[in-house]
Write a structure and sequence with these properties.
The protein is α+β, with helices and mostly antiparallel strands. It has a single domain, classed as OB fold (Dihydrolipoamide Acetyltransferase, E2P) (Beta Barrel). It is built from two helices and six strands. A hairpin with a 6-residue loop joins strand 1 and strand 2.
């Protein structure tokens, strides 16, 4: 009975970690970069990372930007990523292109570049 309890406890402690590792990181991306330009439709910033919905020539893309500290370190300020703003994204798309999802490495607002993940290009 004690062995069963220890096994269940160990699985319970590691299960959230496994799920987190599966979601985060770059494993779901292609490893190559694409370049998209569109208009921000919706914004949800926060942890574990920000999510933007972008209208790219009539197609809706989901863009994962950095955690709040990463966005701030890149120079983004409150309100920079807002509905109606034109944005250019460079990053890694999902392996499944039908997802229309990108993990953003760099972004441009006007001519200003913001580097979220230095050394990834």
């Amino acid at each position: 009975m004690r062995l069963l309890f220890i096994t269940v406890l160990a699985l319970g402690l590691t299960a959230p970690t496994v799920g987190t590792l599966a979601h985060h990181g770059w494993s779901w991306t292609t490893g190559g970069n694409i370049d998209l330009t569109g208009i921000i439709k919706t914004v949800r910033l926060g942890n574990p990372h920000g999510i933007l919905k972008i209208d790219v020539e009539g197609d809706e893309w989901t863009a994962e930007v950095g955690q709040p500290w990463r966005n701030e370190r890149a120079g983004l300020k409150d309100g920079d990523l807002a509905e109606g703003v034109e944005i250019r994204l460079i990053g890694e798309p999902a392996d499944d292109v039908s997802e229309k999802r990108i993990k953003v490495e760099r972004l441009f607002l006007g001519k200003r570049e913001y580097i979220l993940y230095p050394g990834r290009d």
